[in-house]
C-alpha cells in the first residue's frame, strides 16, 4: 500500500517519482534523510507530507536497490 503513494507523471517534475502527485520528488526526501534530517523535521518543514509518505519513499528506494545483477555498460 505504501508504494501507491509514489506516483510518476510526466507533467510533474519531468516524470520523476514523486509523493502522491505532489511536487516532492523521492530523491529530494532521500537527500534530506541522508543529510541527517529526521522524519519529524521533514514533516515540520513540509506541511503537505505525512509520515507514511516518508515510509513510502524508503520502501520505493528499497525496491530500486533490489536488483538481481549489475552489468557494466561500455561507453
From TrEMBL:
InterPro entries hit by this protein: DUF433, Homeodomain-like_sf, WH-like_DNA-bd_sf
Entries under Gene3D superfamilies matching the protein: Winged helix-like DNA-binding domain superfamily/Winged helix DNA-binding domain
Protein name: DUF433 domain-containing protein
Organism whose genome encodes this protein: Pseudanabaena biceps PCC 7429
Amino acid at each position: 500500500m505504501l508504494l501507491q503513494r509514489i506516483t510518476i507523471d510526466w507533467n510533474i517534475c519531468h516524470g520523476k517519482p514523486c509523493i502522491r502527485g505532489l511536487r516532492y520528488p523521492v530523491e529530494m526526501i532521500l537527500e534530506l534523510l541522508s543529510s541527517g534530517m529526521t522524519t519529524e523535521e521533514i514533516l515540520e518543514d513540509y506541511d503537505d507530507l505525512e509520515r507514511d509518505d516518508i515510509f513510502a519513499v524508503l520502501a520505493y528506494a528499497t525496491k530500486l536497490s533490489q536488483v538481481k545483477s549489475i552489468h557494466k555498460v561500455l561507453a
